[in-house]
Amino acid sequence: MYLELAHTLRSELNRYSAGDYLPAEVQLAARFEVNRHTLRRAVDELVREGSLLRRQGKGTQVLGRPLVYPVAAGSAYSESLSALGHGVEAVLLQRRHCTATAQEAEHLGLPLNAPLIELQTLRRLDGQPVCLIRHRYCATRAPLIADYTSGSVRQFLAERQLPLTRTFSLIGARLPSREEASVLLMPRHLPALTVLTLSHDALGNPVEIAHSTSRSDRFQYQIVT
Fold first, then answer.
1. Is residue 46 located within the same domain as residue 132?
2. Number of domains observed in the structure of the chain
3. Highest mean pLDDT: which of 43-52, 53-62, 166-175, 183-192?
4. Could you give the CA distance from residue 127 to residue 108 in angstroms, rounded to a whole number?
5. Could you tell me which residue ranges the HTH gntR-type domain spans (predicted)?
6. Structural domain span for residue 37
7. Is the pLDDT of residue 190 over 70?
8. Which residue has the higher pLDDT, 217 or 137?
9. Calpha distance 187→117 (Å, rounded)
């Protein structure tokens, strides 16, 4: 019975917008004339699929359908998604110093454990958090990004005479950490999409290594050649 109910609920999701909440469990149970245990099992199916998200103290939220993000040399996150008609917001969550891993050192042409400066940003689409990005640069560039607080990082750098071009992208998937799942409002059993991106300046010098973690229920990456 719960699978039949899940099918009915799934077919009705197009009546909702991303971010809307379903009616309370007691209301849905009464409407479908089932007990709350059966209703919860039906909702659990849609949560596992990534169509719904339970938010403690608030209810069951409807998640948006996946967006197609074109990955190309000149593509920039905020500009690309704004062009698709979405409201894009980028905010700075943290600025910190760290050291280069072996992989980062190789890509950036730096010694192992070289000092780096990191900006951790959160992207929201139409008010919903969808992506965490860790932008890392050689620590010598700290003064250049000292004034960054929000908006497109790539645009911020371009306005300071440092336009960047994507030269390498590595796409993967993994389960989100507890912190990532909390910030992105996603269940921990749902895989997150990861992208490691290397960007160069106009002279071909490596400048930025970026690690992004995105909700897999919200994104599909299209490789543009």
1. no
2. 2
3. 166-175
4. 34
5. 1-65
6. 2-62
7. yes
8. 137
9. 30
CATH of the domain at 195: 3.40.1410.10
- Please state the φ and ψ torsions of residue 106, each to the nearest 5 degrees: -65, -45
Q: State whether 47 and 112 are in the same domain.
A: no
Cα–Cα distance measured from residue 33 to residue 97, given in angstroms and rounded to the nearest whole number: 57
User: 142 vs 53, which has greater pLDDT?
Assistant: 142
Can you give the pTM of this predicted structure? 0.70
pLDDT of 86: 63
All residues at 6 or more sequence positions from 139 whose CB lies less than 8 Å from its CB, including other chains: 97, 114, 115, 116, 117
68 vs 2, residue with greater confidence: 2
The number of CA neighbours under 13 Å toward the Cβ of 132 is 17
**Long-range own/partner contacts, residues 71-74 (CB < 8 A, 24 or more apart):** 71/166, 71/169, 71/171, 71/195, 71/221, 71/222, 71/223, 71/224, 72/166, 72/224, 72/225, 73/165, 73/166, 73/167, 74/165, 74/166
CATH code: domain of residue 55: 1.10.10.10
With a CB cutoff of 8 Å and minimum separation 6, the contacts of 217 are 50, 51, 63, 64, 66, 186, 190
176 and 117 housed in the same domain: yes
The pLDDT tens digits for 14-33 are 888 878 899 999 999 999 99
> Cβ(190)–Cβ(173) under 8 Å?
no
- Rounded Cα gap, residues 130 and 155, in angstroms: 20
